[in-house]
């Protein structure tokens, strides 16, 4: 019995493309990456909102769209002052605001103050804001609850 050498060799299986580059896009890794990015954005989006909790006064007024580009000064219930989530003592507020608004064309500041803060303290903060040269000061409030 003879076994031929031809049958024992490996025969190279010819690919479908004959050495040409494959023209198909594998979509599965693309879908995986998009889903992971979607999950990341869904988790991080709630964390991007303004973070200091204050109990704002409720009044009827025109609504103001405060986005991330606006400078927001917040006074919480413990009389702590924050400028865009950065805690600042009252004595340093004027120089810090001058530094924040040094390169800005719009000298507009929005203030959020807890309703439990005494009026006198809010006026002190507003005086420091005026000393820093802020042209416009807007007060942020919440709309009142409607009785049904």
From TrEMBL:
The chain crosses the membrane at residues 30-52. PANTHER family: BIOPOLYMER TRANSPORT PROTEIN EXBD (PTHR30558:SF12), EXBD MEMBRANE COMPONENT OF PMF-DRIVEN MACROMOLECULE IMPORT SYSTEM (PTHR30558). Belongs to the ExbD/TolR family. It holds the Pfam family ExbD. Keywords: Cell inner membrane, Cell membrane, Membrane, Protein transport, Transmembrane, Transmembrane helix, Transport. GO terms for biological process: protein transport. GO terms for cellular component: plasma membrane. The keyword Cell membrane applies. It is a single-pass type II membrane protein. One of its GO terms (molecular function) is transmembrane transporter activity. It is found in: Cell inner membrane; Cell membrane. It comes from the Bacteria. This is TolR protein.
């Amino acid at each position: 019995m003879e076994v031929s050498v031809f049958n024992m060799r490996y025969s190279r299986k010819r690919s479908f493309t004959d050495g040409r580059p494959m023209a198909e896009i594998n979509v599965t890794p693309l879908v995986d990456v998009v889903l992971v990015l979607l999950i990341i954005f869904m988790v991080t989006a709630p964390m991007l909102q303004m973070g200091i909790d204050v109990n704002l006064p409720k009044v009827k007024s025109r609504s103001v769209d405060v986005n991330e580009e606006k400078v927001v000064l917040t006074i919480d219930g413990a009389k702590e002052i924050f400028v865009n989530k950065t805690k600042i003592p009252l004595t340093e507020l004027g120089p810090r605001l001058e530094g924040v608004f040094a390169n800005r064309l719009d000298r507009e500041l929005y203030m959020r103050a807890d309703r439990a803060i005494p009026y006198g303290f809010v006026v002190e903060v507003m005086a420091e804001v005026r000393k820093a040269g802020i042209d416009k000061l807007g007060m942020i409030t919440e709309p009142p609850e409607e009785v049904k």
